[in-house]
């Protein structure tokens, strides 16, 4: 499908920098010795990353480095430096153009801490899975060390950690609203999203001698300014979406999109009719109402202290994510402002192909020897076929980072990569572990209306129902699967990315193809919950859609003569979830004989809509009024632990906590040993263990004296193991 939102200039249309004469490096250098072997006296750009350097297109630094190399620049990489001082940041010398800083493929806080804020002791992006190789808030720390190393070298932030912190945001770990990361990192410029297009433009402009402080107009970038940029017209965010009465998102399908919010849904109130308007023939060169317009958001100091205005600002930000009609954003922080330009235009198919066709070695840098890097082992036989997601799930950050518009590679480019894996990657056995991306079955699915795609401000194209303009034809995906599995030397093509099942049921032929050829016994899908309360705050479809998909999946699996199972993913403690909702989900799990081995509590990632619901406890998905719906959110370790325990109702370690909650909810009928019961009654061993536990005062004395109560038996908790098929998450 031809793209309807296009950039003014192609990604590879720039003349190459003079250093292209050095050609491409086997690996981007990580030491001065490697630079000497390449004949380099210096690096033009030095990339600093919190991940180990794996030269593979699933690792952001490899893509960025190889892309800049293709434009003729000499790029060095400092991977997982010692951040205690500036020494490691100087080992490649002073870069000629800038430092590019990222925390890596994951946010450093999410990488280092669990959803319960417990320290992790492993890191999948580090050799031998070793934890502690990156600092908390890595972007900020790395940037400060770069500044200490070379004060006059520009610093550009990128990657998902910087992208999700480009504005004032609620920080789950400190439980407060923090200012834009640009201020804390003291960097010169921030690039958000998949930043190939702004990166190439900024780099060439710096190479041409332009000062970093003069580069203010590049889409997909954020900068610090003293005042709004000249020649831009400002509009206050409250005129678009009033706090106290937040208006619906404008209808994207009207003939003239009204982005100033003056005529939004005026006939939507009961008894009110739309007034007839005269038809006015507009001049051909009329400027679109969002061009050269910025939205003034409530200041950092305001959203820090006012939850309603925080929700309002976050709502506006999510409305301004479509590259076709997004306006710039301005937010004051003290005596300065953060200026966020509209998002970069998505890549064309030919540009995506060129990025993935760059000369990646597809293995870790030789400096790591035989050390295992788990993240690489997981993806080394997989192929990324697309970017972006139009699902709009409120808990997910993919849309905020990659955008709603699907950017797909060509079939030929994907096939070339599969052949390269087959022919060059060590250890390949003929099985491609995944053809996917953020979602397995959004390949080449885009809006069928050019006008709608260019002007739509809906947060989701599939909720509360699939938009009539959305293409749901899975034929391109089916054709890709068939061509890939027919390649010589390919034994199996598995699909490991999550399947968006509400889309899949629109094209049962896809489910048939999937069940017959591409499932290795289990298929991951994500209903996330069973109850309408949390599902409505997640913007996820109801269980009726799940049952329809399961019916088709089971039917086609049986026709193929295969015994295959769905593995549903669920989230505990999501905003909008009551204890009763979690109990209903636990009962559903038992009735359907699911025993989840690994469960996940909701993780409030920066800038996500669900994080706003968690922080404000106000339903910002609808009009916000004085009597707006309060969104229940499980906060605190005890409450969140209960929700997580209910997902693992079968674990004896959770019996006591669940029993206590059931009694409190008046559901003692679920305590017993029958098939209709959720947990067994308290056993004799449990009673003796509870009686032997010291009381609160005695526990404190035990801690100081070192004496232990020897009468506490280990026991087996007295519970019978529930019967039924064990299906793990």
Automatic annotation (TrEMBL):
Q: Is the Iron keyword given for this protein?
A: yes
**Which residue stretches does the UniProt record annotate as biased composition, category Basic and acidic residues?**
263-275, 684-701
Q: How is the cofactor bound?
A: Binds 1 [4Fe-4S] cluster. The cluster is coordinated with 3 cysteines and an exchangeable S-adenosyl-L-methionine.
- Please report the stretch or stretches of sequence annotated as the Radical SAM core domain: 375-641
User: Which intervals of the chain are annotated as region Disordered?
Assistant: 234-253, 260-279, 672-729
User: Per its UniProt entry, which superkingdom is the organism in?
Assistant: Bacteria
Arranged from A to Z, the UniProt key words for this protein are: 4Fe-4S, Iron, Iron-sulfur, Metal-binding, S-adenosyl-L-methionine
Molecular functions per Gene Ontology: 4 iron, 4 sulfur cluster binding; catalytic activity; iron ion binding
Q: Provide the protein name.
A: YgiQ family radical SAM protein
